[in-house]
Design brief:
This protein has about 150 residues and is α+β, with helices and mostly antiparallel strands. Helices cover about 15% and strands about 25% of the residues. The chain has a domain at about 55-150: Nuclear Transport Factor 2, Chain: A (Roll), CATH 3.10.450.50. A hairpin with a 2-residue loop joins strand 1 (about 105-115) and strand 2 (about 115-125).
Length: about 150
């Protein structure tokens, strides 16, 4: 005659009951239960406003003019005449320096019309500051397009 083996202990809860959670960061299984605050809980971080279109375009133009991104990366955001000018400038790589990544030092803008921004930016390329200027226009599809680009002459 063989003896029955003892059943191994399981860590699963009995059927029909949800597992109990000891992790205070996860929500409790029931919607009505509220977690108790812990003394080490930090305040929630307030939501940041979305970046201004001038900041987005300045970052994109810097990446293209320094050779870190290709021209087609911004092609749909550039108007026809500005695309030709940007292509000419991108060949020269005016913001490309020896080992230094260009960083945006300061951005400012002037709004001559509610649907137009004229933007100027100072770009730090190593120890030197460079100038970048461009114009943004709001199109009929309510998207911003770059219509002019200039950099300081070398």
């Amino acid at each position: 005659m063989t003896r029955p083996r003892p059943r191994p202990t399981t860590t699963r809860p009995p059927a029909g009951r949800p597992p109990t959670r000891s992790d205070h960061r996860r929500p409790l299984p029931t919607a009505t239960a509220t977690p108790t605050p812990t003394p080490t809980a930090t305040r929630p971080i307030p939501a940041q406003p979305p970046p201004h279109p001038t900041e987005i375009f300045a970052e994109r133009l810097v990446l293209v003019l320094s050779g870190q991104r290709p021209m087609h990366w911004v092609a749909r955001h550039i108007a026809n005449t500005a695309f030709d000018e940007l292509a000419r400038l991108a060949e020269l790589r005016p913001l490309c320096t020896d080992g230094h990544r260009p960083t945006i030092h300061r951005i400012g803008h002037y709004q001559p019309h509610p649907e137009t921004y004229e933007v100027f930016a100072r770009i730090a390329t190593g120890p030197r500051l460079r100038a970048l200027a461009f114009r943004l226009t709001l199109g009929t599809d309510r998207r911003w397009r770059c219509t002019a680009v200039e950099t300081d002459p070398r």
